[in-house]
Design brief:
Largest sheet: 5 strands, parallel
Distance between the termini: 48 Å
Structural class: alpha/beta
CATH superfamily: P-loop containing nucleotide triphosphate hydrolases
CATH class: Alpha Beta
Number of domains: 1
Shape: globular
Order of helices and strands: EHEHEEHEHHH
CATH topology: Rossmann fold
CATH architecture: 3-Layer(aba) Sandwich
Radius of gyration: 18 Å
Strand content: 5-15%
Number of strands: 5
Oligomer: single chain
């Protein structure tokens, strides 16, 4: 299983908690040397640990054969990163499962990811982890909430302008 988190600190923290509970886990993030990253990847591929907890460093360019599950412990900042993360499973015609933990606080961000990817994903509420507030109520009081993608970035605007000029 490959678990994606938002920060290097979270990767190390989750690995520590998994190990404390008897689950063989390793971290993969940018604070590791290239040698340590290569070693962690080989250990994961050779099943020396069952769970690799990684930042988006692992979202692109890694080809792990027969990776059955990808978990988004933290949602990625962009819809493209979401696509690259879940693309690590189900490769080369194999079956795979992608799971994302979505809280009441990040429900609107997840809907934005769905909108950008033109899809609607199935949600399952887990007993004991029910949302405590509605996303709409939170959005009304919190503005954009720091969610990337609610407004177009300067880069996106420049890309659109360049595309319009090419069409003319």
């Amino acid at each position: 299983m490959l678990v994606f988190v938002a920060s290097q600190y979270t990767a190390e923290h989750v690995v520590m908690k998994l190990r404390r509970n008897g689950i063989r886990a390793g971290a993969f993030h940018g604070d590791l040397s290239q040698g340590a990253r290569s070693e962690a990847l080989e250990d994961f591929k050779n099943s020396h640990f069952k769970v690799m907890v990684a930042t988006d460093l692992a979202a692109r360019g890694l080809d792990i054969v027969e990776l059955p599950v990808v978990v988004n412990y933290d949602l990625p900042r962009s819809a493209d990163d979401y696509t690259h993360r879940i693309g690590r499973t189900g490769r080369a015609g194999e079956h795979g499962v992608a799971v994302s933990f979505v809280t009441a606080e990040n429900e609107s961000h997840f809907r934005l990811i769905e909108k950008r990817n033109a899809c609607r994903l199935t949600r399952k509420e887990i007993e004991g982890f029910e949302p405590t507030e509605t996303p709409r109520a939170r959005l009304a009081s919190a503005g954009t909430g720091g969610i990337k993608g609610r407004r177009k970035s300067k880069k996106d605007k420049l890309r659109e302008a360049a595309a319009r000029k090419l069409k003319e």
